[in-house]
Amino acid sequence: MPLLYAYEKLLARRYHMESGADEIHRVKCADGATVCIKRFLPGPKTPRRKMPVLCVPGLGADSYNFDAPGQHGLAAYLAGQGFDVWAIDLRATGLSDFPHENWSAITFDDFFQLDLKAAVAHIQRRTESDRLLAMGHSMGGMLLYAMMATGQGDALAAVCTIASPLGFPQGWDAAPIFKRLWRLGEYIPGLHARQFLRLVTPLAMRSFDRAARRFAEVDNMDTGYARRLLFHAVQDIPRGVLLQFRDWIMTDTFRNADGSVDYKAGLAGVETPTMVVGAPADKMARLDSVERALPLLKNAEYLRCGTADGFSVDYGHIDVVFGLRARLEVFPHLLKFFTTHDRGQQPSLTPTAPGIH
Predict the structure, then answer these.
(1) Range of 32's domain?
(2) What is the Cα–Cα distance from 277 to 255, expressed in whole angstroms?
(3) Is the pLDDT confidence value at 352 over 80?
């Protein structure tokens, strides 16, 4: 055990990654759980936009989806363009707290009905802005879809979903690891992958190249950064969330935990301006599942990030956000979309005291 501890400390130093956030806010949800939101403020000389931006991470990830150093940091990129950016750690991920004894019961529905609801209200209060812009990667975009589908997205002036599917027409090929666990779903507390993946971080993108290609076009990733992201951002997945994804994969649906609410059907006629981003090389959120949102939404635009669309590569599930050229090729499209829909009163961008709020 002392050797394992020493090894973990060595990895922590080797893959250290500083947060670029200016503030960290602790927000209490209606059920008593606490979530953390990182805030990224524009520089003092940067012209300020009107609406704040909420960033929502994907399955098994946390706010490091957007809080990355250098060219990979989408939150810092938007803040540098004048937006007041907030990146959430959903319950039991990242800096957020949650009782261990209740962890396995967490569902996808909790993430948007409790966490995002509390986050939106908090951002509205702190920025004095009635409406905000929102962006979600993978499951994060699905959470924003669920908000809009259930009438809980009134505060969202515009939404960007990145590699976010509405169902899984490819079945288990979307996530083969779930297929190995599906019979155990009701009996295991969840998928405890974080500690294991931390320990094997030095092998990532090399020995696990074939597995990595399910999540990203490896040649389009900065290998060193990808390992740091793996060490910091990957989170354990509760049983309740696993069971919902299992249901969606087996039945090609997108619905709540008990099957009574069809989120996909609820999107029909939604008028919120939405940018749908798809990646041709994405093996998880396949293009046909991402494009399902387009005929449902009344005000949707589509960004397809592939060579046939003028991009230098066919992007995959993760590199569409973290790819070597994403800052130059993808980020400007997201910025243009948010800038176009940035309307409303001027929010308060006065930073509060450093630390946790």
Answers:
(1) 19-340
(2) 21
(3) no
